[in-house]
Amino acid sequence: xxxxxxxxxxxxxxxxxxxxxxxxxxxxxxxxxxxxxxxxxxxxxxxxxxxxxxxxxxxxxxxxxxxxxxxxxxxxxxxxxxxxxxxxxxxxxxxxxxxxxxxxxxxxxxxxxxxxxxxxxxxxxxxxxxxxxxxxxxxxxxxxxxxxxxxxxxxxxxxxxxxxxxxxxxxxxxxxxxxxxxxxxxxxxxxxxxxxxxxxxxxxxxxxxxxxxx
Length: 214
Ligand code: AMP
Known about the structure:
Structural class: alpha/beta
Strand order of the largest sheet: 2-3-1-4-8
Radius of gyration: 17 Å
Order of helices and strands: EHEHHHEHEHEEEHHEH
Bound molecules: adenosine monophosphate
Largest sheet: 5 strands, parallel
């Protein structure tokens, strides 16, 4: 099975991707995580990526598709979860081609739908465990064990540098202009499913499980 999570920043793609990857033994491919790793390298491309992420603009298709291509080459028995990829029509077409080359295809595209107004709160209250990637939120999903990650026990919990109102405005514009058109692309392929991102996390997860087990 290969699936995509589509949705604006803060819709809950990362949270649901992590849950589904464990439930179905799939490999989560978060281009945001891969690009944040790549941005740490002291090279001109690392610096270019870092500038784009901080501003909230999309990184070029070429860079992102190359990262995904490398991961697909390694293969994964349970299939892949594309988290934050594709974000442009060019990336979507490239992914179709890469999957076809690997003699596989997309099973489902799950859109997590959410109103723009709630996203600012979602984004500014968010923090992540840098060791295991678990995502938390100050009010919606606080850590149960004070100061330690519930999932791995780490103290390495951080807010993302680009999770601020200024960068979010650009990220939302990028989403509306370049990513939202993918809804029609996948609708026309008959593989698009939409879930309500305002529901509680476990209810959304149950709905996604029902879609995938159909
Ligand atoms: P995310 O962690 O998915 O919110 O992504 C953080 C940032 O990484 C985005 O604001 C973009 O600058 C960049 N990024 C992540 N995924 C992609 C992608 N598929 N295409 C282009 N840029 C991306």
